[in-house]
Amino acid sequence: MEIINEGPRRALAVTPHPDDCEGGCGGTLSKWIHESETEVVVVLCTNGDKGTSDRDMTPELLAATREREQQEASDVMGAANVVFLSHPDGGLEDTKLFRSQVVRAIRMYKPDIILAIDPYRSISHTHRDHRMSGQVAVDSAFTYAWNERHFPEQITEEGLEPHRVTEVYLWGSEDPDVFVDVSDYLQMKADSLTKHASQMRGPVEGRLERVTNGAIRSGEKAGIPYAEGFRRIRFEIGSRDWQYLSC
Ligand SMILES: [Zn+2]
Question: Which CATH number goes with the domain that contains 8?
Answer without folding.
Answer: 3.40.50.10320
